[in-house]
Amino acid sequence: MMDKIRDWFGFGPMTQGFGGHGHDHGDGDGGHGHTHGVIDPTIATTTRGIWAIKWSFVVLAVTAALQLVVVFLSGSVALLADTIHNIGDAVTAVPLWIAFMLVRRKPSKAFTYGLGRVEDLAGIVIVLIILFSAIVAGYEAIDRLINPRPIAFLGWVAIAGLIGFIGNEAVAVFRIRVGREINSAALIADGYHARTDGFTSLAVVLGAIGVWLGFPLADPIIGLLITAAIFAIVWQSSKAVLTRMLDGVEPGIIDEIHHAAEHVSGIERVGSVQARWIGHRLHADVAISVPDAATAKDVLGVSEALKEELFAHLPALAEANVRLESSAGSTAKRGETSHAHHHAPEPFKVVCDLAAGTLEIVDTPAGERMRLTIDRHADDLTATVVIDRPEGPETLRLEPAADNHHRLESTVAPAEPHEFQARLILAAKGREQVLPFKMVEPEGHHH
Fold first, then answer.
1. Helix (H) or strand (E) run with residue 445 in it
2. In a 3-state reduction of DSSP, which class is residue 208?
3. How far apart are CA 179 and CA 187, in angstroms?
């Protein structure tokens, strides 16, 4: 019960579906309950967002128009302020409408991820409008407290206040529900704004009742309490929108990514996990390690299986990037090898435009080999190590090991000693990069 009350007041989760694991993981048909490739999900959710904004605008415009009639009849300043709030709430539809229309544009060379960030900017504008409404409400309440004014047609004022509350609450529920469906922080924040205006309308009703009972200060006192509630909503909404603007995500999303990986066989370890929102679409980057014996086909199969699980676990996911990193098992084996060999040099970290990974000397069943383990690389990458020796350069061409293009090894052992200046030459599609490096044997080793 308390969870429902907290959720109604806006203190529940901003998005749904990230905290639990109530989905089906069966292997049968329909086990994941999602469809790929039928329609661009961004277009579908954006269209629904625009639909929600249009109808919200209509409802609030009608509500404000009805209240405005009573303002002219009664001369109520409190009702006038409430009407201004409702008009302002309707106006917040404008930045969201513009944002949703811009999001529909296809990515370009300048904006390769599209214009999803525009929605976050709209969320900031909405938070500022909520803040302005809070300031106006506080000013009106203090002014009414200092300078009480008589109100005519108290019954009509109370009815107009109820109309304002009903209209705002209907819009609030509508916007928050649709915002959660499409994971739009901006639309949810706008829904909370409509709810605060509904409270302001109730303050008008209670103020009218207080005046009718002979307590003219009831209206400004309640107005101050409502102002405090509006500021609380400003705080909550600003945290949600700013978190997304700074590439923050709900902790449950990271937990869900790890949970999805548990359903994929062939993953030895999940490394770094990154995720961020671009508008109301989620982008994830996951690093995994696989057994040394895995072939390129195995790696591809594991990556595709993980992507399927990620899309099943995270309905708002728009893109998933799965990359390979050195396995923990490989690291352990290298540690054992180094201990047994007593003089394996420290690995060289490779970081450049064409590739990223680790170059090292390892023991294999066929003997010592120069190995390049790749985390990422350009297409058609070739690698060659040229070692500077007193008798002349030693050239070792690195070839895919066991058909694994993420692990390149020399076909022969590098000559002793394993302490030298060398160059790693990487080439791909007409581009070449030369990376100088040095390998030094540990202290205490002697030949």
1. none
2. helix
3. 5
Neighbours of 229 (CB within 10 A): 17
The set of residues, in sequence order, having a beta carbon less than 8 Å from that of 373 and lying 6+ positions away, is 326, 330, 357, 358, 360, 406, 407
User: 110-119 b/e with 16+ CB inside 10 Å = b?
Assistant: eeeebbbbbb
Provide the pLDDT confidence category of residue 325 given band limits of 50, 70 and 90.
Answer: confident
- Give the max Cα distance, the chain: 107
Across 45-67, b (16+ Cβ under 10 Å) vs e yields bbebbbebbebbbebbeebbebb
Which sign, positive or negative, has the C-alpha torsion 372, 375, 376, 379? positive
pTM above 0.70, yes or no: no
DSSP state of 353: S
The first and second tokens of residue 351, run together, are 């970081």
Task: Find out whether 291 and 327 touch, Cβ atoms under 8 Å.
Answer: yes
Instruction: Report how far apart, in Å, the C-alpha atoms of 274 and of each of 107, 180, 256, 324 are.
Output: 22, 22, 12, 14
pLDDT in tens, 333-372: 444 433 434 445 778 888 888 888 889 888 877 788 899 9
Structure tokens at 150: 């008589």
Element (H, E) at 214: none
Amino acid at 268: E
Q: Contact, 231 vs 237, CB < 8 A?
A: no
d(CA 264, CA 309): 8
Look at residues 91, 89, 120 and name the one whose alpha carbon lies nearest to residue 103.
Answer: 120
Amino acid at 171: V
Q: Cis ω on the peptide bond leading into residue 41 (within 30° of 0)? A: no
User: Using CB atoms within 10 A of its CB, is residue 227 exposed (0-12), middle (13-18) or buried (19+)?
Assistant: buried
Phi then psi for residue 7, to 5 deg, are -65, -40
pLDDT at 7: 59
| 3-class secondary-structure state, position 144 | helix
Question: Would you call the peptide bond into 417 cis, given omega within 30 degrees of 0 as the criterion?
Answer: yes
Q: So what's the pLDDT on residue 384? A: 93
87 three-state secondary structure: helix
Reduced to 3 states (helix: H, G, I; strand: E, B; else coil), residue 285 is strand
Round the average pLDDT of the chain to a whole number and report it: 77
Which three-class secondary structure state does DSSP give residue 14? coil
Which DSSP category does 107 fall into?
Answer: P
